[in-house]
Design brief:
This protein is an alpha/beta fold and 281 residues long. The chain folds into 2 domains: 2-135, Rossmann fold (3-Layer(aba) Sandwich), CATH 3.40.50.620; 152-275, 3-Layer(aba) Sandwich (Rossmann fold). The protein is 36% helix and 23% strand. Helix 4 (84-94) crosses helix 5 and helix 9 packs parallel to helix 10. Keywords: ATP-binding, Nucleotide-binding.
Length: 281
């Protein structure tokens, strides 16, 4: 597998890329090649006073490359100019990346949890599964908030094709997963809708698959606003990562994520693994 790791050369990016436990998790899901990508915004020029971009980029990427190679991965670095999320998506397609990783600062105690603009735009437009790796906020020496990326998963489903596609990611995540909580939220708009199979029975089918892979599994059916209920489960169980599918975007125009997945990506405390539709294929 090939992973793309995006960096803006900040302290948050450094800890996301160099964390030994996080690299081990990528290795467990069969990642062998890591593409490091840093994008210089088009409005920033190396000749600007006080800006030494070339030397800073070289030193940081050399440092990252050394750490990643020492962890047993092949590494290729890409330094490009333009709009970050667009260039990252373009490189992900070019190198046929299987997933992308982007670090994002966590919650400030004085404000709502809002992810950075690049992470937010990637979540809305990503062409490959995207791991939003949460980093401590408001500190000069940040740490990742959940080191074991896929050890304890929270999978959210509405039994749509988007959710089924996200569940399929367990086919490779399972090598790093020990526990999983599977949650369906029945929203008020679903009341009175008949189904051939009950949500608990459908969750049990998912659980049976995971248990054949020796993943300890719990299921839960909740009632209320889906995003609120999912975030409540996260607060109570503190999973490493929330696994969720998205509707992605159309070929004609960019669309926002579905409201539930958008809120989860924006407001979750820990990591989020977002699986988009395979539209680019």
């Amino acid at each position: 597998m090939r992973a793309l790791c995006a960096t803006d050369l900040s302290a948050a990016s450094e800890v996301a890329i160099e964390n030994e436990t996080c690299l081990e998790c990528l290795g467990r899901i069969s990642v062998e090649m890591i593409h490091l990508v840093t994008v210089v915004p088009a409005n920033v020029h190396s000749g600007m006073p006080g800006v030494n971009l070339e030397e800073r980029r070289k030193q940081a990427l050399d440092q990252y490359r050394t750490v990643i190679k020492s962890a047993g991965f092949d590494v290729e670095a890409h330094i490009v100019r333009g709009t970050p999320y667009r260039r990252i998506n373009g490189i992900a397609e070019t190198v046929h990346a299987d997933l992308a990783v982007v670090g994002s600062r966590g919650q400030s105690p004085l404000e709502n949890r809002i992810i950075g603009s690049t992470a937010r735009n990637l979540a809305r437009t990503t062409v490959v599964p995207l791991l939003v790796n949460r980093i401590e906020r408001a500190t000069d020496d940040p740490e990742v908030l959940r080191e074991h990326l896929f050890q304890r998963m929270l999978f959210t489903t509405d039994f749509s094709e988007h959710a089924d596609r996200a569940f399929d990611a367990f086919s490779y995540l399972r090598h790093a997963t020990e526990e999983a909580t599977l949650v369906y939220v029945r929203s008020p708009k679903d009341e009175g809708v008949d189904a051939d199979t009950s949500p608990r029975e459908q969750l049990t089918e998912y659980a049976s698959t995971l248990e054949t892979w020796d993943i300890e599994t719990r299921i839960g059916v909740r009632h209320g606003d889906p995003a609120d209920e999912i975030l409540a489960v996260e607060a109570g169980e503190t999973p490493s990562t929330i696994l969720v599918g998205s509707k992605g975007r159309s070929r004609i125009r960019r669309l926002l994520l579905g409201s539930v997945s958008e809120e989860i990506v924006a407001q979750a405390t820990g990591n989020v693994f977002l699986v988009p539709p395979p539209w680019s294929a």
